[in-house]
Amino acid sequence: MDFANMDRRQLTLAGAGFSVMLTLHYSFQLLSQHMFYWKNPKEQKAILIIILMAPVYAVNSFFGLVDARGGKPFFMLLDSVKECYEALAIATFLALMYSYLNISMSRNVVPDEIKGREIHLSFPMTLFLGVLLDILVATGIIRSYHFWLDTEHVEEAIQNVLVCVEMVIFAVLQQYAYHVAPYSGDIEAKLKLQKRHD
Predict the structure, then answer these.
(1) Measured between alpha carbons, how far is 125 from 90 in angstroms, rounded to an integer?
(2) Transmembrane segments in this chain: where (predicted)?
(3) C-alpha closest to that of 86 among 58, 137, 117, 50
(4) Phi-psi region of 110 (alpha: psi -120 to 50; beta: other; left: phi over 0)
(5) pLDDT tens, residue by residue, 24-51
(6) What is the DSSP string of 25-65?
(7) How far apart are CA 152 and CA 111, in angstroms?
(8) For residues 125-140, b (16+ Cβ closer than 10 Å) or e, as one string?
(9) What is the predicted pLDDT for the residue at 29?
(10) What is the mean pLDDT of the chain?
(11) CA dist 121 → 20, 91, 118, 125, 191 (Å)
C-alpha cells in the first residue's frame, strides 16, 4: 500500500478499516480466552455479550462509512441490529452488576442508602459530538472538500470514523475490565500458594 498516492477517501477508509481490525482482534482474543476458561457460565455469558458490543459498533460504523452515499436499506438494517444489540448489552451489563452485588432481579430491591436520592445524569457526549459537528459544518469549518462526500454526509462520516477509533480504545479497556484471570484458576493457585507461605 502506498499511502502517499492515496486520496482522502482511501486514507479514511484504510484508517477506519485498521481500527475495525484492531477492535475485532482484541475483542475476539478476549472472547476466545473466556471460552477456553469456561468456569462460570452465568457471568461469562454476560461478559461475552458485553465484549461483542465493540465489534458490532465498529463494523456498523465502518459499513456506514463505506456506504455513506447509497444502500440506505442495508445500513438501516445494520443500524437496527446495532440498536437492538445495544439494548441487550445494557440489560446484560445490569444483570451482571446485580450478580456481582448479589441483588435479586426478581424483587424490586432498592438499598436503603439510595432510596429517595436524586439521580444525577451524566454528560450526553454523543449528543454533544453531533451538535459540535453541526456547528462546524454550519460555520464552514468542515466543508465537503475535506472528505469525498457532500456536506450532508460529512457529519455522519466523521462520527463513523470517530466510533471506529473509539471502539479500539473500548476493546483494549475491556481486556482489563473483563480479564479472564478470575476464571482461569491462576488467581486461586496464587492465593493457595500465598496461604502456604503464610
Answers:
(1) 17
(2) 12-31, 46-66, 87-105, 125-145
(3) 50
(4) beta
(5) 999 999 999 999 999 888 889 999 999 9
(6) HHHHHHHHHHHHT---HHHHHHHHHHHTHHHHHHHHHHHHH
(7) 48
(8) eeeeeeeebeebbeee
(9) 96
(10) 80
(11) 30, 18, 10, 12, 40
Q: What number of CA atoms fall less than 13 Å from residue 29's CA on the CB side?
A: 13
Amino acid 175 reads: Q
Quote the pLDDT of residue 137: 73
Q: Which residues are CB-neighbours of 125 under 8 A, at least 6 positions away?
A: none
Q: Which three cell numbers stand for residue 120?
A: 444525577
Task: Report the phi/psi class of residue 162: left, alpha or beta, with left for phi > 0 and alpha for psi in -120 to 50.
Answer: alpha
Q: Give, as one character, the DSSP assignment of residue 147.
A: S
Pair 83, 71: CB distance under 8 Å: no
pLDDT band at 183 (very low <50, low <70, confident <90, very high): confident
CA distance 171 to 181: 17
First to last CA, the chain: 58
If DSSP codes are grouped into helix, strand and coil, which group holds residue 186?
Answer: helix
**How many residues in the chain?**
198
In this structure, which amino acid lies at residue 128? F
Q: Please report which helix (H) or strand (E) contains residue 131, including its range.
A: helix 125-138
Report how far residue 36's alpha carbon sits from residue 194's, in angstroms, rounded to the nearest whole number.
Answer: 26
* Coil/strand/helix, residue 103: coil
Amino acid residing at 186: D
Please check whether residue 43 is in contact with residue 96, taking contact to mean a CB–CB distance below 8 angstroms. Answer: yes
